[in-house]
Design a protein that fits this description.
CATH architecture: 3-Layer(aba) Sandwich
Largest sheet: 7 strands, parallel
Strand content: 15-25%
Strand order of the largest sheet: 3-2-1-4-5-6-7
Bound molecules: nicotinamide-adenine-dinucleotide
Structural class: alpha/beta
CATH topology: Rossmann fold
CATH class: Alpha Beta
Number of domains: 1
Number of strands: 7
Order of helices and strands: EHEHEHEHEHEHEH
Length: 243
């Protein structure tokens, strides 16, 4: 990944931190963007001179302009993007307020659109790039009690394919990753709710660890996956094979 400049949203903790750590270890320069300033700054410092933190809200077009400008200033034009930031809000359809639904889709659907839109000009100028959008198995199958999350994650799957078709001629590849349960702060404490699968119902009988998802993202970001675009990549311990 030497010579590659990658923006990772939601990079301060969880899977975003794992993506950032692995990309830096593989030689990339990484801008971690997140709202969690303390955690993000600390992680970037730990990762060394090839990592920088930038505070940004993925649902803000202005913040995206600032994120790309910051990236160009510190490392050069972005050639990679992992749209990873997300939130999980539980509630039945009737208990979900319009504001909650909008928050989920603002961050995980609109935010993914804004991210792709923001990096495309720089990628076109560089002659190509790679975008990985983090969806979920909730973007492939039904999950009760997380309607906004499901809406956003199915949208990410569709937008990924639309973007791959539109951007192929510019050498820009776009793929989605669909993790099942991953042991991060997002789901810890939510076990036993309908939004989190029962570990015994997963063929591998365990949740994933964040670095396992990061290795798949690294493959999709790298030239090793040069002919892979517009595709959905499931990493769920076999859970959807049962569905
Ligand atoms: N943990 C799982 O089981 C699981 C499964 C499938 C998909 N995912 C997806 O993986 C991604 C990462 O999740 P995670 O498990 O690491 O969760 P996490 O809560 O540990 O990390 C998410 C990060 O996104 C950041 N974020 C939230 N809203 C933001 C905003 N508006 N702007 C910028 N940053 C924002 C948070 O501050 C946090 O650091 C999410 O898109 C999530 O939906 C998670």
């Amino acid at each position: 990944m030497e010579g590659r400049v990658v923006i990772v949203t939601g990079g301060a903790r969880g899977m975003g931190a794992a993506h950032s750590e692995l990309l830096v270890a593989e030689g990339a320069q990484v801008v971690l963007s997140d709202l969690r300033e303390d955690q993000g700054e600390k992680l970037a410092e730990k990762l060394g001179t090839n990592a920088r933190f930038h505070r940004a809200d993925v649902s803000s077009p202005e913040d995206w302009d600032r994120t790309v400008a910051f990236t160009e200033e510190v490392f050069g034009a972005p050639t990679g993007l992992i749209n990873n930031a997300g939130i999980l809000e539980l509630g039945s359809i009737e208990d979900t307020t319009p504001e909650q639904f909008r928050r989920s889709t603002d961050i995980m659907m609109f935010g993914v659109f804004l991210g792709m839109r923001a990096v495309i000009p720089a990628m076109k100028r560089s002659g190509g790039g790679t975008i990985v959008n983090i969806s979920s198995t909730a973007g492939l199958t039904a999950y009760p009690e997380i309607i906004g999350y499901v809406a956003a994650k199915w949208a990410v799957r569709g937008m990924t394919k639309a973007a791959a078709v539109e951007l192929g001629e510019y050498g820009i590849r776009v793929n989605s990753i669909h993790p099942g349960e991953v042991e991060t702060d997002m789901i810890l404490g939510q076990e036993g709710t309908d939004a989190v699968a029962d570990v015994d119902a997963i063929p591998l009988h365990r949740f994933a660890q964040a670095p396992e998802i990061a290795r798949l993202a690294l493959f999709l970001m790298s030239d090793e996956s040069g002919y892979v675009t517009g595709a959905e990549h499931i990493i769920d311990g076999g859970a959807t094979a049962l569905a």
